[in-house]
Amino acid sequence: MSIRLFAASVAVTVVVVGAVWVSDLSFQRAVLLAPVLVIGLGAVAGLVVFWGRIGWDSLRRSRHPRLIAAGALAFVALLVVLTLLGVNLPHE
């Protein structure tokens, strides 16, 4: 067995066990859904990398990157604080 095959097997096992731990899936159902879980996780990881690179490039090209980073961090901190306080924002 090659190292790459072993690493892929471990990664799929971790994804399946993580899906069982996070959701109400049984282990057997999660094993059957392993290809879907792996493809979904790969798609999400690809989108995170894609938009992360776009955001990083946009931040580097801006005139005031520290101001933009501080504003984004303040916005995330505000959302976290409001969530911890249990504030429900109105819906339309």
Summarize this structure as a short list of keywords or feature phrases.
92 residues; 0% strand; mainly alpha
Q: Can you tell me about this structure?
A:
The mean pLDDT is 91. 2% of the residues are buried. The chain is mostly helical and 92 residues long. The protein has helices at residues 3-22, 27-32, 34-61, 65-85. It is flat, with a radius of gyration of 20 Å. It has a domain at 3-62. The protein contains four helices and no strands.
- What percent of residues are in strands? under 5%
Following the backbone from N to C, one meets helices and strands in this order, namely HHHH
Give the low-confidence spans: none
Largest sheet: none
SSE layout:
Layout: H1 3-22, H2 27-32, H3 34-61, H4 65-85
Could you give a short description of this structure?
82% of the residues lie in helices and 0% in strands. It is an all-alpha fold. It is flat.
